[in-house]
Amino acid sequence: MNNNPDYPKLETERLCLRPPQEKDFEAYEEFFSDAVASEHYGGPLPAQRIWSLLAADLGHFQLRGYGRWALFEKSGSGMVGSCGLWAPLGWPRAELTWWLSMSARGKGYATEASLAVIGFAVNTLGWDHVETHMNDDNKAAYKLMSRLGGQLITREVFPDGVPRNVFQLPRS
User: Fold this and answer.
1) 101-119 pLDDT per residue, tens
2) Counting runs of H as helices and runs of E as strands, what totals does the chain give?
3) Which domains does the chain have, with CATH numbers?
4) Dihedral of CA 106/11/116/87: which sign?
5) Is the pTM of this model over 0.85?
């Protein structure tokens, strides 16, 4: 696969963020086939559906110029998750979203990657604000919103019929 060098890459103190590639399928499969790891992301999922998610993540960069980046520890341990901006067809607005492998949780990577992505949205894309749409039962995501200084701005029903809280995140 030819990875477009124009797709944005981000870097933090401990992480490298790049658009996903076909070779990242193994990390996607490990996460999305694990019922515990992916409980707030529709999992567990079969391999074909996981492949479609990987393809959608890469295609999002082609269609919108931004998307969900694959996260890698600079120490070289491989892909540890995903974090980025997601605006699927029919969704009311774009949002910040993420997932982390079980081994990467509790290290502050979600906060670190989210801050880099928020900075990209504001400084590169020129967004006035970044928001995220929270499922009620995702307690870990609510903790991350607290660490990021997210403010509840509304509650709405989304196109999939699920009511979610919408948080606005500070401009980093």
Assistant:
1) 999 999 999 999 999 999 9
2) 4, 8
3) 14-169 (3.40.630.30)
4) negative
5) yes
